[in-house]
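Subject: Thymidylate synthase structure
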Amino acid sequence: MKQYLDLVEDVLQNGKRREKTLQGSGDLSVFVRTKTYPVSEDAFPVLTTKKINFHNVVVELLWFLSGESRWDYLHKYNVKIWDVWGVKEVAEKYGLEEGDFGPIYGPNWIHWPDVKRDGELNQIKRLVEELRKNPDSRRHKVVAYNPASVDDVMVAPCHGDFKCYVDLETQELHLNMVQRSADVPIGVPYNISSYSLLLVMLAQVTGYKPGNFIHTTQDTHIYLDQVDPIKEQLTREPRRLPKLKINKDVKDIFEFKPDDFELEGYDPHPFIKIPVGI
């Protein structure tokens, strides 16, 4: 996807150098960039200039939609990408048990504290209902970042705040996700595919066609120890996007399973090992 490679080049060329960050390594950073990715089942947005583990993308998204805070769902499907933040010595610093990440993406999407009703709000359920009943509403918004709890978790939500828009003329559903912190080499490729997949799922269960995923990244950065490996990716030509096969029988956003999705014709360049900012 040329849009992604353009973003990488932008940060490398225009990024302001910071010698130290909370993650330890310095970085190059730009502020607020927006890229648009057309989404369809015939050309699904996923990086081809390096291999992306689509199974991890699917399982992580379904974990978010489950509302769970523990790593049990991830481990059930052999996904270990969150393990480094859930080990005992890290969790205990935040008063959590091993494998519990606290109020992050899924818990905030599905169990948002609702003081007025003395309970909780399922934001995803409400979003689906409103897209069906009131497609022209301006309130099709979901948030993951809760200022009241960001100091209680190891990983404050970097993404997860998104808004949907229905084009009544074309019957297309569009999704804009605003990401407060964007690790361009590691996180952003997953975010592109994850929210494109969420868009396809939402479109299917609400009766619309998937439109565009518009990705807005605020603090958009490349860590200094990621610069050399990400430059290798810039030497590679993007390949044809794969098709997405999805189980058409699923009409409830919470009923999808990992084997309901498959990429057909995914032929990426080889995987590139890039350090993760922790």
